[in-house]
Amino acid sequence: MLDKASCEGREKNVSFFYELSNKSLSANWKSRDFVVVGLGVPVCIFILFANLMVMVAIIVNKRFHFPIYYLLGNMAAADLFAGISYLNLIFHTGPWTIWLTQKEWLVRGALIEMSLTASVVNLLAVAWERHQSIFTMQLHSTMSNRRVLMFIVGIWVIAIIMGLVPTMGWNCVCKVSSCSTVAPLYSRSFLMFWAILNLITFSIMVAIYTRIFIYVHRKSQSMLPYTLNVRQNDTLVGLMKTVSMILGAFVICWTPGLVILLLDGLKCTDCQVLKYEKYCLVLAECNSLVNPIIYSCRDEDMRNTFKRILCFLCRRGGEQEVEPCPIYSDTLNSDRLLTEKHSDSGNHNHNHTERSSS
């Protein structure tokens, strides 16, 4: 343990680290600060509402009570947490940053790291679940609810640990020469570790989904049509496309920011990381907004469940009777059709037997 005498920045305020990193920090409000707050708050509120809708839809619609949807619901929870993190960041940025203590500044960063880590690990769990399901020729995996719950708890434990690492000591407070430019209280070594770890995870997930798509394409040309009916095969491919779009949006929105952190960690003086920092943060924030849009556009059942929830809210708000919105299931429709077909076939054979005996 370093004592206070050997810790260079222990008693310094946040402004000291910003000046050390040549990152501007003004006590006066600028037009850019007003734009950030004015646009950021409504966007964060919409992020909270949209992802809350996804979580409620998965809870109220029993057709979504499968491992893949539980994990997607946890993804929405991570996006919801990201919206809270961005909202906290907005109200602790610009001139407000000057009044933050070191601990408050580190907690502000920890919230962003937790939301990103939760999303990354959750996407990895979704990729694993899809891999297990597709390669066993099933629409949904046979994971028990207890196992899914353990996965979700594990995801958040990892996210919390990763978020608290800088707060617990991996920062530059006691070694100011290692401070980064983008995040002045963070150590460059931590930014490199965090960025490389996430970029490697992205690559693994892309490789998994590429393998799954190649497998599905080959099977759809040969054995898969005989294993699943056409409707169920379409549902399988549709669900795969949805989760792949979620992964694609995540990689597109977060990769530029991680690259900036990596360049900053490598102390690239010619890269002008501060010039692109704000844009990368806005792009990362958009990811939490994009996912609910993907759910509603790609999944008709999810879209109809949204309508049902909104109808319920309108009915409660207006105190008038409104017919419940119909809900149709794309996910389980093929299973229902197979059941009905089997039931009709059984009834037909039973009637034929009765006529023969008569």
Task: Provide the descriptors you would attach to this structure in a database record.
disordered C terminus, 11 helices, 358 residues, mainly alpha, single chain, 72% helix
Compact summary:
With 358 residues, the protein is mainly alpha-helical. The protein has a single domain, classed as Rhodopsin 7-helix transmembrane proteins (Rhopdopsin 7-helix transmembrane proteins, Up-down Bundle). The chain contains eleven helices and no strands.
Oligomer: single chain
What's the main sheet like? Answer: none
Q: State the CATH class.
A: Mainly Alpha
Query: Can you tell me the residue ranges where pLDDT is under 50 for at least 5 consecutive residues?
Result: 320-346, 348-358
Note the beta-strand portion: under 5%
User: What would you report as the Rg, rounded to the nearest angstrom?
Assistant: 25 Å
CATH homologous superfamily assignment: Rhodopsin 7-helix transmembrane proteins
Number of helices, counting only DSSP H or I runs of 4 residues or more: 11
Protein name: G-protein coupled receptors family 1 profile domain-containing protein
Subcellular location: Cell membrane; Cell surface; Endosome
GO molecular function, one term: lysophosphatidic acid receptor activity
InterPro entries: GPCR_Rhodpsn (IPR000276), GPCR_Rhodpsn_7TM (IPR017452), LPA_rcpt (IPR004065), LPA_rcpt_EDG2 (IPR002277)
